Every structure is written in C-alpha cells, then in structure tokens.
Amino acid sequence: MKKIISTTKAPAPIGPYNQAILSGNTLYTSGQIAINPATGELVLDSIEAETTQVMENMKEVLAAADMTFEDVIKSSIFIADMNQFAKINTVYGSYFNEETAPARETVEVANLPKFVNVEISMIAVK
C-alpha cells in the first residue's frame, strides 16, 4: 500500500507527481531542485547555495515522512556540469555522517527541469 507524502515546507510538484511515496517502510522521493518553497523562486546565487536549497527541500520531504538523512539508503544526483561536482559534493556531504552515508550515483545530464544545475532524489528506509 502506498501513502502520498506531501509538505508545504518543500516546493510543490511542477508536474503530475508527488513529493514522495511511502510504501511500507520505504520512502521514494521525487527529485528536488532549488526552488525556495516560501517564494517559489529558484535559488541560483551559487552552486553551493543551489545545492543547499535542494538539500533543505529534501530534508523537509524526509521530515514529512518522519525520517532524516540517517534513514537515506540511496541518493541520485543529476548535475548539469561535472566541473561543479566538488562544490556540490561538499554541500551534499555536510548533511550526512560519512561513516553511514548512503549509496549514491552522480550523473552529468544535458538539461534539468527549469534548467537548474543540480537535482537530487533519495530512497530512505525506516
């Protein structure tokens, strides 16, 4: 049985999908981009600020399912420019305990929604 997870503390979906789906004890999140949920505006001041907004959005989606980054078992990071990897990785890494960090892939893509620079999705288990 699936349960729709939704919070106003993260950006509303911009298409026919939900912020996350809880199936049993496993949470599947949709990708988050750097939309400030309070203003609806993209945060593109720097790649660090953009990645921070993505992770803050993800934190709120996880919280809506009563989970934290410690519950994340898999992350997928999509970036527009692999040259930005180190900066994105530094911000991303600050949200995890390195010893218990999830599995992950990082992929460079041609384009992302709203032509942002980074999108992150996660799978978490409680």
Strand content: 25-35%
Mean pLDDT reading: 97
For the largest beta-sheet, the strand count, sense and barrel status come to: 6 strands, mixed
The CATH superfamily name is RutC-like
Helix content: 10-25%
Low-pLDDT runs of 5+ residues are none
Number of helices: 2
CATH-defined topology = 60s Ribosomal Protein L30, Chain: A
The top level CATH class name: Alpha Beta
Summed up, the domain count is 1
Tell me the strand order in the biggest sheet: 1-2-3-6-4-5
How would you describe this structure to a colleague?
By secondary structure, the protein is α+β, with helices and mostly antiparallel strands. It has a single domain (2-121), classed as 60s Ribosomal Protein L30, Chain: A. It is built from 2 helices and 6 strands, in the order βββαβαββ. The chain has helices at residues 47-64, 85-93, and strands spanning 2-5, 20-23, 26-29, 72-79, 103-108, 118-125. A 6-stranded mixed sheet has the order 1-2-3-6-4-5, with helices on one face. α1 runs parallel beside α2 (85-93). The chain is globular. The two termini are 16 Å apart. The relative contact order is 0.23. The mean pLDDT is 97.
Outline the secondary-structure elements.
Blueprint: E1 2-5, E2 20-23, E3 26-29, H1 47-64, E4 72-79, H2 85-93, E5 103-108, E6 118-125
InterPro entries: RidA (IPR006056), RutC-like_sf (IPR035959), YjgF/YER057c/UK114 (IPR006175)
GO molecular function: deaminase activity
Family: Belongs to the RutC family.
Summarize the structure.
The chain is of the alpha+beta class.
